[in-house]
Amino acid sequence: MERKFLTAEQIAAALRSGEVTSAELTDEAIARIERDDKAINAICVPDFDRARAAARDADQARARGEDRPLLGIPVTVKESYNVAGLPTTWGMPPHRDYLPTEDAVQVSRLKSAGAVVLGKTNVPLGLQDIQSFNEIYGTTNNPWDHGRTSGGSSGGSAAALASGFGALSIGSDLAGSLRTPAHFCGVYAHKPTLGLASSRGMVPPRTPALPVAPDLAVVGPMARSARDLTLLLDVMAGPDPLTFGVAHHVTLPPARHERLCDFRVLVLDEHPFIPTGAAVRAGVDRVADALVDAGARVEWHSQLLPDLAEAATIYMQLLVAGSVARFPVESYEQLRSQAAGLSTDDHSLDAVRLRGMVLSHRDWIEVDTRREFHRHGWRQLFAEFDAVVCPVTPTPAFPHDHHPDLRQRRIDIDGIEYPYFDQLVWAGLATMPGLPSTAVPAGRSPEGLPVGVQLIGPMFEDRTPLRLAELLERRIGGFQAPERGA
């Protein structure tokens, strides 16, 4: 494999052996970005001068005998994280000149671990799309097919990894924003258990970087191998040092099993709200077949599984309630009028989303209580199973769609169109109860596009789906460099 596609683990070994220096790796990565990123547009904010300085510092530190987890390894950071001296815009034009003065917690942790930050990666406007494009930085293309999206909202990070622009990246996930780009670009991502990794400083521009605990949203690692996900998660995990970190230290339990044959897995490929496309279903089947061949216990149905329709409804309500919380009063009143005009018989996800946008606090508490019952149901399921395998979205990467009204967009699933945001139901399966989920490559579509699946695990047992991902990588293969981009 070309050096640009080495894993972080392989790079660390080469650095320790003296085979290469961080300065050499960083110069090579910068040269690749300057040459190849014109077609991809993944790196929206380069930071090459400081990266070269950090690489020289890493080489000097290693010469002194230091050996930190990411020492000298080139990485990228999602644009939505504050990096002192670099723009944080979230793709919003009014904030194009905003420069935070302090690093986000996770950026500080990367630097403390010795990582060399090459720059920031592109995002959608306000992080609120399944694609990554905005007026400031333009469109990020899928490295496998430039006419298709790289996903969102961590689409720039996934495209950067697939293109060899750094070995690791950090992103965030509220509606599949780590997992969907990984699935679309053929790389790995891990959505940690809710609350496992501090997100302070991953905030909208000009918003104070306070130690809040956002509902549903997490920050997490992206990589080109499962083992690299674990390496980076260990750097990221831990509470905010301003709050729970004063008293708590995180020690994740080990993976439940070390061999594929010992895993108990529930496989899902059907959802009551949206069909699964043939290409994604084939990816799920490929993973299921590998598990069966390895001797794992694989089931396709369980009475313990929480109701998927209710889970999707709860997720959509919580998701949109948080998304519109800061809308202007005039916009909120318009939504209230639209919701009041819905038929009482309309139980579509479009209707669920509209009603969710105007939930009262009393109603939100009721939805949150229903979420707790689902969390309890998942605890019961994970007493019988170790992981759940299911789609990330119903299709591989779809063609760019920049229609300004997101509610008018449609997703084509094997020739039939469905509401654009209905495809989020699979991402919400893990997000709503706060479960960890690892996105892994699972083959190619007939058109040659990457297809991934997600491995959902028990709460705070993140090492279990990560270990399963590592074992599957050995059995069915993992990241492959893009073969084309047109």
Automatic annotation (TrEMBL):
<feature type="domain" description="Amidase">
    <location>
        <begin position="24"/>
        <end position="464"/>
    </location>
</feature>
<protein>
    <submittedName>
        <fullName>Amidase</fullName>
        <ecNumber>3.5.1.4</ecNumber>
    </submittedName>
</protein>
<dbReference type="InterPro" id="IPR023631">
    <property type="entry name" value="Amidase_dom"/>
</dbReference>
<dbReference type="InterPro" id="IPR020556">
    <property type="entry name" value="Amidase_CS"/>
</dbReference>
<dbReference type="InterPro" id="IPR052739">
    <property type="entry name" value="FAAH2"/>
</dbReference>
<dbReference type="InterPro" id="IPR036928">
    <property type="entry name" value="AS_sf"/>
</dbReference>
<dbReference type="GO" id="GO:0004040">
    <property type="term" value="F:amidase activity"/>
</dbReference>
<keyword id="KW-0378">Hydrolase</keyword>
<dbReference type="Pfam" id="PF01425">
    <property type="entry name" value="Amidase"/>
</dbReference>
